[in-house]
Structure formats: C-alpha cells, structure tokens
Amino acid sequence: MKHGFIDQYSSLNSFIHRLDPRVKLITTLAFVIAVVTTPPTAWWAFALYLVIVFGFILWSKLPIGFVLKRSLVIVPFVVMIAIFIPFFKQGEVAGSYNIWQWQVSITYGGLLILWNVVIKAWLSVLSMILLTATTPLPNLLKGMEQLRLPKIMVMILSFMYRYIFVLIDEVLRMKRARDSRNFGGRRMWQIKTMGNMIGTLFVRSYERGERVYQAMLSRGFDGQIRTLHSLQLKKADLYFGGIFLVSLTLFSIWVHFPIF
Fold first, then answer.
1. Which residue of 118, 145, 175, 245 is surrounded by the most CB atoms within 10 Å?
2. Which of these, 148, 164, 146, lies nearest to 156 by C-alpha position?
3. Are residues 188 and 85 in the same domain?
4. What is the reported pTM?
5. Where do runs of H (alpha helix) occur along 134-234?
6. Are residue 23 and residue 125 in the same domain, yes or no?
7. 31: closest CA among 52, 17, 59, 47?
8. Are residues 141 and 165 both part of a single domain?
C-alpha cells in the first residue's frame, strides 16, 4: 500500500524546499534554542517568532491547515503535563475554586509557567513540522550524517523510515482479518483482542528485524550507509543560513539585554 503521510508535501517547489538539509537542520536547531531561552514575559518576542514561523510556512507553500493539524496532535500531550502547574506553584493567588471537598488555587506564577511551556512547545513543534514537511526524509538523514551526528541515531531513523510503512501494512492486514471475523462482543473481549494484536505485531516486528539484520551481515554491512547522492552547499544556502543565524543571534541578545 502507498502511505504518503511523511513526505506528503516534500516534493513542492519553493525556496525553502530547495535549501540544503544541513542548513535547515542548523537554522531550525538555532530557532528552537532561541525560543526555549526566551524569557516567558517577553510576549512580543514570542509574537515575532510566531510571525517568522508562519512566514516561512507561507513561503514554503505548505497548507496552513496541514501544519496546524499536525501541531495540534502534539500540543495536547504538553498541556496534559503542564496543566497542573498553576495549581501547585507557590505565589500570588489568581483564583480559588471548590471542587467537591477540595479547595484549589491558581497562582499567577503557575499561569506564567503554563504559558511558557505551551507557547515554547508549540513554536518548537511548528518549526520541526516545517523542517520535516519541506525535506524528504532520506535527504534529511543524509544531512544528519554529513553533520556528523551519531551514526546509530541516523541508522535507527533510517530503518524507521524504511519499515514503518511495512508495519502499517501489517497492522491494516491484521485489522481486516479482525473485522472479517465479526469483531464485536463486550468491551473486555475487545480489549483482550487488541492486546493480542499488539503482542503479535511486536513478535512479528522483532522477527523481521532479526531477519533483516542477518541479511545485512551476510551482505557485508559494516555500519556505513553508502549512497550515490551527495549534498552540495550553494551560495543561496550560505546566504540564507548566515543572514538567518546572524539576525536570530542579534534578536536574542536584544531580548535578553534590551538596554543595548
């Protein structure tokens, strides 16, 4: 089966798409670092970061709905972790509420931390979505390799990309087999069936991994991934990367030391 959810828009023609993957990796990492280190009270800085991200999204011709939909899938997990901070952070009370027999209070300091975690996580996720949606994953892995990232990490990501589609097909086949046998009954029976499916999928994935490993060893694999394609930096890549990094550095200095 064909699954295009990873590289769905990576073949579009835009300046962002044509940038070297190494430049995009470095600039994205720099942007995330700048966002994370920004003080939580610098509201205008986060607004500017948001304008920058959406400006690049529009420049890359990515559908806004696609980017927002992907980002909102991740944000709830962040909110679930940070939602309790306002209730436990000490400080000036913003509001007090009675929930059954408990009285809980929300502090301004806790709300500030909640805002800080959510906005930084969302901006970071948006930048990562922009990176992955505008770069074919094989080129992104090649860029990681040439940037001397740990080989084991690049190799794991490479195998994930190669075999995630195989595992999805395996799940779909198991689902069709389950539905063809009139899957129903009580909830506990359904949960037991789903547990058996997950266990079967794990065993099959493990066995497939062992077969792939043995096949690689029999063909003389030495841990080095060799490809015919080589990345080359162009002047446009250097100009974009240099201007973006210098501008981001100056802006970050201004955010932390506004007197300058």
1. 145
2. 164
3. no
4. 0.79
5. 137-146, 151-180, 187-218
6. yes
7. 52
8. no
Q: How many CB atoms lie within 10 A of CB 31?
A: 24
224 and 239 part of one domain: no
Mean pLDDT by 10 residues, the chain (260 residues): 68 91 95 92 91 94 90 77 61 55 62 81 92 89 87 83 81 81 69 82 86 86 71 90 94 80
Segments forming the whole domain that contains residue 69: 1-148+230-260
CA dihedral 36, 41, 47, 53 (to 10 degrees): 0
Closest CA to 155 of 224, 221, 230: 224
CB of 153 closer than 8 Å to CB of 31: no
Residues 124 and 52 in one domain: yes
Classify strands 102-107 and 93-99 as parallel, antiparallel or unpaired.
Answer: antiparallel
For residues 179 and 143, state if they share a domain: no
